[in-house]
TrEMBL record:
It comes from Muricoccus pecuniae. Gene3D superfamilies: Cytochrome P450. This is Cytochrome P450. GO terms for molecular function: heme binding; iron ion binding; monooxygenase activity; oxidoreductase activity, acting on paired donors, with incorporation or reduction of molecular oxygen. Pfam families: p450 (PF00067). It comes from the Bacteria. InterPro entries: Cyt_P450, Cyt_P450_sf, Cytochrome_P450_monoxygenase. Belongs to the cytochrome P450 family. SUPFAM superfamilies: Cytochrome P450.
Amino acid sequence: MAATRMGSGGSIPRASLGETARVMLSVVLPLLGKGVLLRRPPVVAMAQSMGLDRRAVETMRALRDRHGDGPLILPIPLHPYALILSPAHVSRVLALTPEPYSPASDEKRSALSHFQPTGVLISPSADRARRRPFNEAVLDAPCPMHRLAERFHQVAEDEATELVEAADHFGELDWGRFATAWWRMARRVVLGEGARDDHRLTDALSRLRADANWAFLHPGHPRLRARFRARLEAHLGRAEPGSLAALFPAARAAPGTDPAGQVPQWLFALDSPARATFRTLALLGTHPALRGRAEGDIAEAGPAERPFLRACLLDTLRLWPTTPVILREAVEDVEWEGGRMRKGTGIVVYAPFFHRDETRLPQAHRFDPDLWLSGRPEDEGLVPFSDGPANCPGRNLTLLLSTAMLAALLRRRAFTPLGAEGIGPGDRLPGTLSAYGLRFRTG
């Protein structure tokens, strides 16, 4: 049943103070500790060793068992939140975005304004209507293959070649070397060849993202943001052929779009796929049968396809969502089955709860790419890129780049993860898998 505007005026179920405290302690604090916009590797490693993400899912499951499908109001003073507890409600909230459920929640605005104050994610409705079409046009949002896919595949091949040479020289592939190659690829794709080695640009973005982890608790670095913006605009001004920057004129940005202001989100969004790609490499290294299928996919399918490899990446994102919380905010009173959700209520979709729900998914804790080769997983609350009108416009581009890099690496070497116990076919996969600690033997 779709949500309606106003109605009976009933009351949505509310969590007790004890339940609210458990959500804050087991779900919210670990998320904040790991870093929402820039991960803190030591805290991620601690979360993995302590099983904190598994405990968070168990807390959510206990709430659903007690309160049903929800939503469930958390009585936070001055700013109540509604926890979504059913896959159908996930679909409803995301489908009814941006109205009555705005993606520009208070939390997002206070955090993302540190490095992308005019980004589409935190734009009010009028600005969003101008900025979203520009993002979709440059990123070729609805197209599985970007118009520059051939060029982007070549960039991935170039960087993979150099990465493998470095790994062979040092005797192993670790996160640091992989991340360096990934960001070289990302800067070339977004800004062109002149930005390939501009580590200072993405380092500045990382510093701003570290500030953003603190949201309104950090005063921000306006001077650093200004220097980052000037450096970014210098690269965009070249509009190098074969880069996203070269597509700006054809996108015909409406007045008020601020094209350069959209780019920090693209660079930020390319951080998560790096971790997903590295984790997928580890899973394929511990699942020989699936590795064989992936190699067949690479050998038989052209760059424009590789459906199995794409499914491998999607299932890694299911197992370890890089955006674990999807936030919305009710911009008006909305009637639900259980009562009225008041204007200003924050809405929380905790993705790991749905992605690891063993009551619905037999493969909840296994690596199962076949899940993505049929049907609509979004209907089951599986939303690694969100869904609906505010879904990630760069979804297909990030999958293209991740698939291209993964294929390029697998074609060159057999990467065997070192010290990767607990992520094999017979294992219950952990709730957290730190990409930063993964290491591979080449050969």
